Amino acid sequence: MCVFGHVIVNILAEKSDRLKVKKSDIRILVVEDDESLGRALEEGFRRSGYSIRLVPSPSAAENALRLEEYHGMIIDCMLPRKNGVDLASEIKNSYPKIEIALTSGIFRDKAFAREALIKSKAREFFNKPFELSRVIQTFDEIFTPILDADQQPLFELLQLEQYSSNDKLHAVRQTPSIHGLDLPWVYSLLMDPHISGTLRIAYPDSRQAAIDFNKGKIANVHFADSESYFGVLLIEMGFASSEEIDRMLAKQQSKRLGERLVDESYISPHAIGIVRHEQMVIRLSKTIQDTNVEIQFDAKEIESDVFIDGFKFTQLLSDWACSKLSNEWLKSFYRQYVGNPLTASVNYNQANIVAHLPAARVFADLEMTLTWPRTIDQICADHMDRELDILRALHFFLLQRILRFGPKAVDKESIENKRIRLERIWQEMQDQNFFQILGVNKLAKQSEIQRCYRELAKVLHPDRLPDSVPADLRELSQKIFARITQAHSTLSDEAKRQAYTKTLEHGMADEILLAETKFEEGLRLLRSHQFREARKALEKVMKMHGRRSDVVVYYIWSLIKEKRHRADRSELANRAGDLMQTIAHEDRHNPQYFFVKGMYYELTGEIQRSYQAFKHALSLDPNFIDANKEITYIKQVYGKKKSTFTDDLSVVVTKILRRKTG
């Protein structure tokens, strides 16, 4: 037996992941006298990455085994001069660690298959004609504990403390397809003082986006969107009134809206830059979507007079961690890193600087004094009720290179901690579809499905458990991995995947319809001032998968209205403030958002800001009756103080920039 063969055998026997191997290091011997079928098996396994050899007879197989080490075999039961079951039995006696699968086109009886498996100690019996993908998948599952998953270059950087600008560009260019929720990581890498160029993003619905990076800044954001937001932002920032915008839009001119307003002396040219900056922020936020995207980066010189700098970008990363990353995505993404310790990275000294941002605030809230390295499970162990908040904070720190993943440590986790972790994972899986279980999007390519499956197998395969674990814990691990295998088996087969996706889409359509119906019910209750009932109805909608993105705005509305006169105002303000952080940036520019913002400021005692928020809501929608009522309420309760409604600095600046003529 060759040295490498001993290594493989020992790894399999000891169930260790201290040494990982590539598929090309694993040798499989096919014993098949049907040349066309044998060639098909040979080609399929070779394309999958295995080293494989085809022989036509038992004697040729025995000669091959004398010369080289093989780790798996596929043996036809009907062979010349010796049947395959006897051959497999003899090989198992001589080479007990070889994994064998039997095939047959004649012996199709279930009893024969059962007896053949017992006699030969083979792993699987395939009746011809069989699906080649099923045979390959069987060996994938057998060798998963020792296979080194082909991690995408983009995510390999999460484990490195130091890497160059060229390393970043290489990683982005070598990862042409990613999940849309991974775009913040791509943006973080390209926000480099030595990188300039355009990142092009293609979405499944054929929309395109292009983002220009210029030496540590985002210079332009081009995104195919039905809304420009320019007029809305002019009104929101107080540069123009809705009447002025309508008047300009009514004029048939080739010039852009901002240029027309400048020509008419309604606004200063400086106002256009301020609005364009916010317009860029909205469009950048809208590029981050829960779908697979294709990306391509072209290096070139970029020029722009308006940009998003590093300071603003850090705020956006925090914002996206709170508002964009779904619970399901977070759980799936970090499931594969459960055994990797987190440790301090190159920017760790900046942790205190960003600690006040919403995404990072959980550590201050929990008064956690952390020492590194620590695994995710160790961090979450005493705060399971805040697990998702902790994952968002960790993700934010990873994107900022404050933390990084270290190499997987030798498994020293206690039996009880293993049990708690596996029980939690099993519970989560009950509400997840196959795509969520593997942590991939519905449009994920097969390469991504295979990669994620292997990453999960490295962490959750039952063979990773020590021999000493209790039987019930091993059974739980087997149930979890059986579910993962079922997901992988379904999504790896195109026909099964299409059928499963259609079923999901039908169910999602029903969920969206139900969520919309429940939302309309909550909205009706809200408008009729039945705030408690509205809050309960909208609370249910918040938990639905098919809910609309802005439902949280209406939920906060009902929550504050219900409780602001009879609850602890500071506690209610904290709750409302946390919820407002989950509103996506593009949903923060409508009358309802500013209305809710006004109520929040009134809770915190910031009456001037509250008044201005209600005025903004009314300027965006002059028929917003509730905003008018809140303005009246503020004047009645707080109007005795003459200084209450003086213009704040932003309003003063706005008036200067407007330069409206008499």
Structure description:
It is built from 31 helices and twelve strands. Mean pLDDT is 84; it is low at 1-19 and 647-662. A hairpin with a 3-residue loop joins strand 8 (208-214) and strand 9 (218-223). Helix 25 packs antiparallel against helix 26 and helix 26 (551-563) packs antiparallel against helix 27. The strands form three sheets. It has a five-stranded parallel sheet with strand order 2-1-3-4-5, with helices on both faces. It has a five-stranded antiparallel sheet with strand order 6-10-7-8-9. The protein has a two-stranded antiparallel ribbon with strand order 11-12. The protein starts with a helix and ends with a helix. It is an alpha/beta fold.
Report strand order across the widest sheet. Answer: 2-1-3-4-5
Poorly predicted segments: 1-19, 647-662
How large is the share of residues in beta strands? 5-15%
Distance between the amino and carboxyl termini: 96 Å
Indicate the percent of residues in helices: 40-55%
Shape descriptor: elongated
Largest sheet: 5 strands, parallel
Rounded mean pLDDT is 84
Figure out the total of helices: 31
Give the total of beta strands.
12
> What value does the Rg take, in angstroms?
30 Å
Helix/strand structural class: alpha/beta
Short description:
The protein is an alpha/beta fold and 662 residues long. The protein is built from 31 helices and twelve strands. It has a five-stranded parallel beta sheet, with helices on both faces. A five-stranded antiparallel beta sheet has the order 6-10-7-8-9. The protein has a two-stranded antiparallel sheet with strand order 11-12.
